Amino acid sequence: MQFVASWRYAVPTVVVIGLSACCTVGCGGRSPVSQLRDGTPGEAAARVMKSYDANGDGKVAADELTASPGLLEGLSRIDSNKDGAIDLEEMTARFGKHDEQSNIIAFQLNVAANGAPLDGAVVTFTPDPAALGEGKQAYSGTSVAGGVALTGSELSMPGLPAGYYTVQVSQPAQSIDFKRGVEIGDDVPSPNRVTIDVSGKKSPAGRK
């Protein structure tokens, strides 16, 4: 099966292997400056600590990241001393790693439910406001038999900036409303593929 997906313009045709709805996001290049992370690594890290260090102990533990699925998903890569929490130094270092990577990351998005492509689902990537800065554009698209085209309403981008995102998959016909976090980067596991399996992830209204 082949399809052409686009981010406000056509990108190369890709071969889709397996049972999943797919989106090819990007083929390299640079993103608009407004969508890149605001501030230096240290400034961005300070925003994260201010936003999520609820008890003021100078660390952000997993239970303080319920409002940031993206950072929670990336916790193991940020937490260099493996104490189960993020501190200012670790967060600064991780943002520094992002700055060494491509400005935008191309990847293929796979969305599946019960081993089959999830058609008719709205897929939205929302940048974490503390990690990337306030006012960043969210990106969304609807899955169809051929795949998903993600767009930012006034953007022309071949990929996503490195950083932390909440991904929401909504499919009302199957009562699916699912969120998870993702870190976009060159050095994450399978950096050119994001897989979301929503099997059994019914919204509360859809549960029996």
Strand-helix topology:
Elements lengths: L1 E2 L10 E2 L5 E5 L15 H12 L6 E3 L7 H5 L1 H4 L6 E3 H12 L4 E2 L1 E7 L2 E2 L4 E6 L1 H4 L6 E4 L17 E2 L1 E9 L4 E9 L8 E5 L11
Parallel strand pairs: 7-14
Antiparallel strand pairs: 1-2, 3-7, 4-5, 6-11, 7-8, 9-10, 9-12, 12-13
Low-confidence region ranges: 1-31, 203-208
Task: Report the mean per-residue pLDDT as an integer.
Answer: 77
Q: Which percent range describes the beta-strand content?
A: 25-35%
- What is the share of helical residues? 10-25%
Question: What would you report as the Rg, rounded to the nearest angstrom?
Answer: 17 Å
The total count of strands amounts to 14
Total domain units: 2
Instruction: Report the major sheet.
Output: 4 strands, mixed
DSSP helix count? 5
Provide a brief overview of the structure.
It comes from Lacipirellula limnantheis. The protein is built from 5 helices and 14 strands.
Structure description:
The chain has 208 residues and is of the alpha+beta class. The chain folds into 2 domains: 2-35 and 106-206, no CATH class; 41-99, Recoverin, domain 1. The protein has helices spanning 41-52, 69-73, 75-78, 88-99, 129-132; strands spanning 2-3, 14-15, 21-25, 59-61, 85-87, 104-105, 107-113, 116-117, 122-127, 139-142, 160-161, 163-171, 176-184, 193-197. Strands 3, 7, 8 and 14 form a 4-stranded mixed sheet that branches. The protein has a 4-stranded antiparallel sheet with strand order 10-9-12-13. The longest helix has 12 residues, at 41-52.
